[in-house]
User: What shape does this take?
Amino acid sequence: MRVRLDSTKVPFSLDHTLECGQLFRWQKLGDWWYGVVEDMVVKIKQTADGLTFQTFPERTKEDFIENYFRLDDDLPSILDQISKDELIRSAIERFHGLRISRQEPWECLISYICATYKSIPAIKNMILNLSRRFGEKITVNERDFYMFPKPSDLARASLRELRGCKLGFRAERILETSKILDRGELNLEDLKKTGYEKAKQKLLSLQGVGQKVADCVLLFSLDKLEAFPVDVWIRRAVLEFYPRYFEYSFFERVSSKSTITPHEYETISSFGREYFGKYAGYAQEYLFHSLRAREIRL
DNA sequence: ACATCCCCTTAGCC
DNA sequence: AGGCTAAGGGGAT
Assistant: This one.
């Protein structure tokens, strides 16, 4: 199937979107990207006039790609709104077409609990281990792919099996959270309909979910584009490039230590939301990717 | 080879 | 409230 994109009206870069660190389930093999999305393997590549893709098993959900890559976001307008200074403008120029993906909330939640204090290659490994151990297999072109397990699959798992997936101390947290979701005590889809603050409070009640993880889940799967996750990269960048927006004592205190308190997190994150506006999450992702790509040195 | 640091942090204890 | 600490293990230096 094909999706035609007019690159001036609907700018999109498949490479930047899949490489920026928001997604953990894609790999490039030759010209094609392969990924597992919900119950399908997706094979996709970008061409001069759009996207060519195939799903396994074959599905005819016409708007699947538009939805997954948020092609419905008016990116030119969003980038215009967050273009507040030279730092963000250079990131936007360098990674033009990068979009926030609309992930499946349950997988996104578990992925970012895994992401706690881990590097991206390690996170990908943990998620692959979980999927191999507990997910359904789909074979495409002689290659095996695994769907992400359902809440019931992980809720029934033993701690030992989970630890076998190299989750470390995250195993207990993932088991507890899976049980809550499996029992239906929290419905993630419902959080799409509530505001940012209320949805965040609900997520924070889960084991393994602090402010950073909550913001990632809100941004990447629950349509809260104002969420501004603050990880070590963003913290360093904000202190380095935007010190005048903070009290000097705050700057000194936060610069001098390796961890921050919930209150300090909130100060930095709300700065992001106020400074960049309602699409602060897009600004965060452009900054994050350009910092990690070492395009901008700190 | 090997040590050491860092990692898209959170929770639990004072 | 906020400081301190522990918690897998892999990848980078």
About this structure: The longest helix of chain A spans residues 120-134. Chain A has three domains: 2-72, 105-221, 232-296. The longest strand of chain A covers residues 40-47.
